């Protein structure tokens, strides 16, 4: 039995989703502007300073623009109202976007590791560059690290896995700028091998983050349930409702960053339908106080102490 939401709960859910949508849109648009300016800056300076690393980093920055547009599209699509074909809404667009971002991180990580190994095997491939390239790399590093911290702050504030993934993509680009900066310093000091060693370490880190987000989004798309801590919170709420004789078949599944909950409620078999309905409404209301829960589906079962479901 699916109990209809109250107007206050609807308003709360709507306000939460709208706040999340606006925060995601604002942070992503800021990322687009910053990455566009940085990529142009890096490529131009890289050409004039003869730094292939800086040019490559500028091209790498362009990959962030692709990620940003993926997030913008998914963020818009995920907040479309439910329709006949998608009665539970479109929140899984966010899970799909997180999967794409995770794959981007994997590809970037593999590319960085591959490039680093190639340079370690042939140090002559590491170019000697001018000092202006170091200045450009440091400016890019500071800007990207600042962008990462801002985006991660927003992602945690609105509790969005998709935005967390995009923030860490920005960190991977900051790591790339760090690699370039270290490589330039090493080149100026005659220690060219520092560049590929740093690239290998950062590339491995980026690959690891990509694997984490790809795996998490795949699990969510396959109806992964809530973590044990959240499940215990739900159990505590149910066990705190005196009218219930018990409950069973508690199930949860992810939809974007929200949870859908199914549960069978055990009630006195002699209770009227109206009384049972009122209890179910109260159960749903209590569970929906958790902002992570999007919807609750309940089923009423007559309680028999001599028979366990």
UniProtKB/TrEMBL annotation:
Keywords: Ion transport, Iron, Iron transport, Membrane, Transmembrane, Transmembrane helix, Transport, Zinc, Zinc transport. Its main location: membrane. It is a multi-pass membrane protein. The chain crosses the membrane at residues 28-48, 54-75, 96-117, 129-147, 168-187. It holds the Pfam family ZT_dimer. Coiled coil: none annotated. Residues 29-222 form the Cation efflux protein transmembrane domain. It comes from the Bacteria. One of its GO terms (biological process) is iron ion transport. One of its GO terms (molecular function) is monoatomic cation transmembrane transporter activity. It is found in: Membrane. Residues 227-303 form the Cation efflux protein cytoplasmic domain. GO terms for cellular component: membrane. Belongs to the cation diffusion facilitator (CDF) transporter (TC 2.A.4) family. FieF subfamily. This is Cation diffusion facilitator family transporter. It comes from Providencia huashanensis. The lineage of its organism: Bacteria, Pseudomonadati, Pseudomonadota, Gammaproteobacteria, Enterobacterales.
């Amino acid at each position: 039995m699916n109990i209809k939401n109250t107007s206050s709960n609807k308003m709360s859910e709507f306000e939460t989703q709208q706040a999340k949508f606006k925060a995601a849109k604002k942070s992503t648009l800021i990322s687009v502007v910053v990455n566009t300016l940085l990529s142009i800056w890096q490529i131009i300076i890289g050409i004039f300073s003869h730094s292939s690393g800086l040019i490559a980093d500028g091209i790498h920055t362009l990959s962030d623009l692709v990620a940003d547009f993926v997030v913008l599209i998914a963020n818009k699509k995920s907040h479309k109202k439910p329709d006949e074909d998608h009665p539970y809404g479109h929140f899984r667009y966010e899970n799909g976007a997180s999967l794409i971002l995770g794959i981007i991180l994997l590809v970037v990580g593999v590319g960085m590791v591959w490039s680093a190994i190639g340079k370690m095997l042939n140090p002559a491939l590491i170019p000697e560059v001018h000092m202006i390239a170091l200045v450009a790399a440091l400016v890019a590093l500071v800007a990207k690290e600042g962008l990462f911290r801002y985006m991660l702050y927003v992602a945690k504030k609105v509790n969005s896995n998709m935005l967390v993934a995009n923030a860490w993509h920005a960190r991977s680009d900051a790591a790339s700028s760090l690699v370039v900066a270290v490589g330039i310093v090493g080149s100026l000091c005659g220690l060219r091998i520092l560049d590929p060693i740093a690239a290998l370490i950062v590339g491995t880190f980026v690959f690891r983050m990509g694997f984490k987000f790809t795996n998490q989004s795949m699990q969510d798309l396959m109806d992964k349930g809530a973590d044990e801590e959240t499940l215990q919170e739900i159990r505590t709420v149910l066990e705190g409702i005196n009218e219930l004789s018990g409950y069973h078949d508690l199930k949860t599944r992810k939809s974007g960053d929200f949870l859908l909950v199914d549960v069978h409620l055990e009630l006195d078999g002699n209770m009227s339908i109206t009384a049972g309905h009122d209890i179910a409404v109260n159960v749903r209301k209590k569970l929906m106080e958790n902002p992570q829960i999007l919807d609750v589906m309940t089923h009423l079962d007559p309680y028999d102490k001599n028979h366990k479901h």
